[in-house]
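Spend some time on this chain, tokens included, and walk me through the fold:

. . .
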Amino acid sequence: MDGLPPSVDHDILAHRSIAAIATIRETLGCTVHQAVDAYAQRYEELRRDRPDDFRQELRGDRPDFRPGPDEQG
């Protein structure tokens, strides 16, 4: 999704949904419902195009994250 600041991607990858949706609302000047739809679209794009970034963000931002047996290293 074009036109969103990089902070939206950072917030999505760090599981800061409310911050991402608030930024989307400010940037696009849309309703909460439209911002949630835009968030979902961007989330899916990131999952498809940058799956490894989700794993890295989970490890760095969530102290409770425990890698599975296939991720031990």
Q: What stands out?
A: The two ends are 34 Å apart (CA to CA). The mean pLDDT is 84. The first helix runs from residue 6 to 13. The helical segments are 6-13, 17-28, 32-49, 51-61.
